[in-house]
Amino acid sequence: MPVSLPGKISIAVCLLFVFQFIFVFGMIFVNGFGAIVVFLQFTIVTASLGIIFGVLGLRKESGKARLAPVSALMVSGVFVLLFFVTLFGYAGSFGE
């Protein structure tokens, strides 16, 4: 369990990622385009919070307590990657 405040907030951000994933995945079956829009709106905020508190938590925590900030940072990176792939699209070869 993290000791510092950024470490504890990174746990909350990880829970936010789980809720966001469940919400968007459930919404895909109701309205696919709406799910994409909601994903694009929420991801930029939650991923930013995850990166900020993940880095702050990494600087303050040590030992096993670093697991929460590292996981928040990794999931934030995945969400940022999904954000940019969804926003700009994916092409096998860029520039053609």
Write a concise synopsis of the structure shown.
The chain is mostly helical. The protein has helices at 5-28, 32-60, 67-88.
The figure for the number of domains is 1
Calculate the terminal CA-CA distance, rounded to whole Å.
Answer: 49 Å
Weakly predicted, low-confidence segments? none
Name the helicity range: over 70%
Radius of gyration, in Å, reads 15 Å
Total helices: the number is 3
- Biggest pleated-sheet summary: none
Tell how many strands the DSSP assignment holds: 0
The coarse overall form would be elongated
Mean pLDDT across the residues is 88
What string, H for helix and E for strand, traces the elements in order?
Answer: HHH
Strand content: under 5%
The assigned structural class equals mainly alpha
Transmembrane segments: 9-30, 36-58, 70-91
Keywords: Membrane, Transmembrane, Transmembrane helix
Keywords:
single chain, 96 residues, mainly alpha, 78% helix, transmembrane helix
How are the secondary structure elements laid out?
Blueprint: H1 5-28, H2 32-60, H3 67-88
Helix pairs in contact: 1-2, 1-3, 2-3
How would you sum up this structure, described in words?
This protein has 96 residues and is mostly helical. The protein has one domain (5-84). The chain is 78% helix and 0% strand. Helix 2 (32-60) packs antiparallel against helix 3. The radius of gyration is 15 Å and the shape is elongated. The chain crosses the membrane at residues 9-30, 36-58, 70-91. Keywords: Membrane, Transmembrane, Transmembrane helix.
